Here is the input.
Amino acid sequence: MSSCEFFKALTKAGSESDRMVIVKMFVGDNALSDIIVNGKSLLGITTNKEVLELAGKALTEERTVETVVNDVKVILEPVEPRPTVIVVGSGL
Here is the structure.
């Protein structure tokens, strides 16, 4: 998955939900990223039940969780999207 696809999914998730967790997994020299919304993987990369439970913990405690699961370094970062402000007017 390219960075553009990830950020497109992140933008969509941010507009549709109030809270999410960004998951970064490091397997050797490879890094994978996913987005967890409502306890489910948005991109289908995170399938490990323990990681999904840790995502809930990161949201509940409102803190980043770093751990190792099955020899994979996992970083879970809770995100609360900021509302978009649109100003419309005549400039007067």
